[in-house]
């Protein structure tokens, strides 16, 4: 069995569910997945799944911190229009203006969360995820 390693970008500060950290704590780049599984009291398949899921969490966190490009802003506006109607354009313009240059996806979502009721925010986030932006 090859040694298992932390995915690139994973740090001690990366927010992961406890079940993943329980396994990833034992991953050191020297131990193979069988050894890690024994230490974490899980199966070998669980170890390999945890490494893969950790990579997905990193990709999601990276996507959330990327700056919002004009193309992404346009896509977010389309999604928002489908949730709240034509007012969405003004809401997005205000959010982007308030956040300034280099606004991140997380910051935009937070700004919009203040303007949307919970059901609207849920619908918006679901569509953003479905498009692969989160």
Automatic annotation (TrEMBL):
<dbReference type="Pfam" id="PF26309">
    <property type="entry name" value="DUF8082"/>
</dbReference>
<protein>
    <recommendedName>
        <fullName>DUF8082 domain-containing protein</fullName>
    </recommendedName>
</protein>
<dbReference type="InterPro" id="IPR058395">
    <property type="entry name" value="DUF8082"/>
</dbReference>
<feature type="domain" description="DUF8082">
    <location>
        <begin position="74"/>
        <end position="129"/>
    </location>
</feature>
